[in-house]
């Protein structure tokens, strides 16, 4: 058991993903508790976590739902928060895109911040890994974290008001994002898009139902793309 190269990479993925459990477990439990207190039943809470499996988007959508925001705003905000998943998919496809359709479908479902970040760093450092080894590592990170997210969401939903939701772990989301995103800011275009989004989110915080986030995301994408085009033109001209 665990003697194949892919299995060994799976174990390495489990080990590398362990630090993220420290943040994920209380975050998931508090989400489950907040969702229950907001009026969702356990089936709805678990459906939310299993189908979306994206804590930041889930919290954003839940907050808007409790504020009776229009459904289109709730959906658009959740999609805006998760726009990065499309870029993750395009980035990781060259590494695992030759696997079977079923495997790719499962990988697409498990593609969220932590496994993407750790996998891309791993694949850059060890470019000679086979597709099966890359998949082993990716799933080694993703599956335990996913199981932890489901389990702690369920625990929080069951315990409900017994779990205090003011434990001060609201810092967990931005810290996790900083840990995940900072190694990826490698070019001027990345930095420009990140800075634009931060400035606009703060500047447009007055907009109703968090719609400033949608504007910030759209403008940041345009800025990043334009800087990338400018850099390519400058490189070609030199």
Automatic annotation (TrEMBL):
<dbReference type="InterPro" id="IPR011606">
    <property type="entry name" value="Brnchd-chn_aa_trnsp_permease"/>
</dbReference>
<keyword id="KW-0813">Transport</keyword>
<dbReference type="GO" id="GO:1903785">
    <property type="term" value="P:L-valine transmembrane transport"/>
</dbReference>
<dbReference type="GO" id="GO:0005886">
    <property type="term" value="C:plasma membrane"/>
</dbReference>
<keyword id="KW-0472">Membrane</keyword>
<keyword id="KW-1133">Transmembrane helix</keyword>
<feature type="transmembrane region" description="Helical">
    <location>
        <begin position="167"/>
        <end position="185"/>
    </location>
</feature>
<feature type="transmembrane region" description="Helical">
    <location>
        <begin position="137"/>
        <end position="160"/>
    </location>
</feature>
<protein>
    <submittedName>
        <fullName>AzlC family protein</fullName>
    </submittedName>
</protein>
<dbReference type="Pfam" id="PF03591">
    <property type="entry name" value="AzlC"/>
</dbReference>
<keyword id="KW-0812">Transmembrane</keyword>
<feature type="transmembrane region" description="Helical">
    <location>
        <begin position="191"/>
        <end position="224"/>
    </location>
</feature>
<comment type="similarity">
    <text>Belongs to the AzlC family.</text>
</comment>
<keyword id="KW-1003">Cell membrane</keyword>
<feature type="transmembrane region" description="Helical">
    <location>
        <begin position="20"/>
        <end position="40"/>
    </location>
</feature>
């Amino acid at each position: 058991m665990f003697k194949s190269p892919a299995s060994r990479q799976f174990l390495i993925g489990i080990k590398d993903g362990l630090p993220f459990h420290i943040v994920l477990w209380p975050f998931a439990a508090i989400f489950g508790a907040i969702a229950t207190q907001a009026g969702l039943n356990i089936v709805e809470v678990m459906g939310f976590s299993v189908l979306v499996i994206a804590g930041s988007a889930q919290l954003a959508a839940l907050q808007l739902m409790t504020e009776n925001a229009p459904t289109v705003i709730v959906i658009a905000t959740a999609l805006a928060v998760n726009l990065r998943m499309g870029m993750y998919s395009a980035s990781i496809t060259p590494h695992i895109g030759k696997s079977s359709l079923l495997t790719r479908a499962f990988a697409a479902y498990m593609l969220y911040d932590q496994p993407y970040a750790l996998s891309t760093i791993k694949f850059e450092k060890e470019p000679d890994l086979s597709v099966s080894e890359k998949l082993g590592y990716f799933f080694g990170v993703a599956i335990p974290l996913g199981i932890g997210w489901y389990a702690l969401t369920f625990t929080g939903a069951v315990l409900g008001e017994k779990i205090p939701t003011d434990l001060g772990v609201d810092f967990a989301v931005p810290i996790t994002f900083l840990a995940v995103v900072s190694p990826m800011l490698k070019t001027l275009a990345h930095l420009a898009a990140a800075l634009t989004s931060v400035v606009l989110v703060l500047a447009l915080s007055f907009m109703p139902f968090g719609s400033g986030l949608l504007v910030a995301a759209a403008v940041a994408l345009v800025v990043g793309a334009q800087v990338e085009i400018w850099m390519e033109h400058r490189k070609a001209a030199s």
